[in-house]
Amino acid sequence: MKASGPLIVRGRDGADIEVPVRISPRARRLSLKVDPARGAPELVLPPGVSLSQAESFVARNVVWLENRLARLPDAIPFADGTIIPLLGIDHLIRHAPELRGAVRRRESPDDGMPLLEVSGGADHLARRLTDWLKREARRELSERARFHAEQLGRKPMRISVRDTRSRWGSCSSTGALSFSWRLILAPEHVLDYVCAHEAAHLIEMNHSGRFWALCDGLVENMDMSRAWLKRHGSALHRYG
In angstroms, what CA-CA distances link 167 with 24, 161, 163, 195? Predict the structure, then answer.
């Protein structure tokens, strides 16, 4: 079939569920996924699968699909009054149209939750805050990745920050490191671990025992950070 549009499947309550379709030359079987980042399902097909086969596959898995969609957390928009984590610490977003500069972080005047004050018009708040968070992520991630690489006698060729869904960081064969900007929302030890993880790949492009020994020598509480990402990482895609 051609991925010209989504499939529509009828749920148990009679409501229609829209399932986008993607044809992948690398796929060897039909695969139904739910992406926490987008809060939406996706059907991945190998080339040559017929429409009837695809529809039958989704219909057989509709109960699983409904259960997974029901467990998705609600999205948390960047808006005045919203609480978001910054390096794992909750901050209250406040619209401050008179503020000079895009975003200012400051302690609450009443010793409460720290604030993220965002200037400009309310309709630009989400974009301004997102841009600021990406800059903060680039600064934190670059500094820490370079530091850990230096401990190993290596230097990254390049460091970039993106909004990746499938991985928190990566290291290319040329020594270029890439990270998800959403790590700025995670606790500091988690962000630091991911930087160490990718720096270790500058020496070991695998997940061998030697690789994990390098990681363990760079950061404390490696297992705790890995467990946090496994348990809470998908929730970081709720924000913004």
Answer: 19, 12, 10, 13
